[in-house]
Amino acid sequence: MLEARLEQANLFKKVVDAIKDLVQDCNFDCNDSGIALQAMDNSHVALVSMMLRSESFAPFRCDRNIALGINLTSLTKVLKCAQSDDILTLKAEDAPDVVELVFESAESDRISEYSIKLMDIDQEHLGIPETDYGATISMPAAEFQRICRDLIALSESVSIECSKEGVKFACQGDIGSGAVTLRQHTNVDKPEMNVEINMSEPVSLTFSLKYLVNFCKASGLSNQVRLCLSNEVPLLVEYSLANNSHLRFYLAPKIGD
Amino acid sequence: PKHQQSLDSYFCTR
Predict the structure, then answer these.
(1) Nearest-CA distance from B12 to chain A in Å?
(2) A173-211: b (≥16 Cβ within 10 Å) or e
(3) Span between the terminal Cα atoms of chain B, in Å
(4) Which of A38, A75, A87, A184 has a C-alpha 20 to 30 A away from that of A195?
(5) For A116-135, what is each residue's pLDDT tens digit?
(6) With an 8 Å Cβ cutoff, are B11 and A206 in contact?
């Protein structure tokens, strides 16, 4: 059986909120290392990969592998019933028909119990190859969100160029063009404002802004976001969570002229 | 214009 108690229901709420517009029906794969999710959007352009490690829960118990097939719209409806500082416990039997969600108030004696009917989801599991990226950029998540939201007003696509000059986000549209360049930057007082660029080769790639704006819904989960780029391979956008957990998005590039 | 690639060619089915 699965029993996973999360001190902050809000964390799970935010994760589901960040991915629900990208993917609809997902398997939450539970085993003794934690709860993982991997799903592609309908167009097979973007992939979501979430890992909530067992250390993120207290206690965490999962005796055998359980796949919880959940519709995220249904899950969102139920998670709305949790107050943001509630404690969340996920429960399921070994061959479950339902997943149970229990919300407990840390301050009062309220206990709310909900269940969601599970679905059989036949999902392909993709092998994501280990990649030595040509460029890795860590930057404030809010800054990345702002750049994506600003540039989508002008164009559908953004080119991300990383060179020893820094990283340049540029777009061209019908009304004109826009570009934002960031250089490596260390803020001693506010390390969450740091911009760190590690580059082994210059990289230049083009991506659809619609997807990037979507990924940025995860901005509330982490102060910093990490972008990993190599020419001609999918972009990795990573939000690190506490206890080595993470929410990652992959996006296929646009290529050719 | 550039064409949107799919992830299928990058990630293999396990």
Answers:
(1) 5
(2) eeeeebebebebeeeeeeeebbbebebeeebbbbbbbeb
(3) 33
(4) A38
(5) 999 999 877 788 888 999 99
(6) no
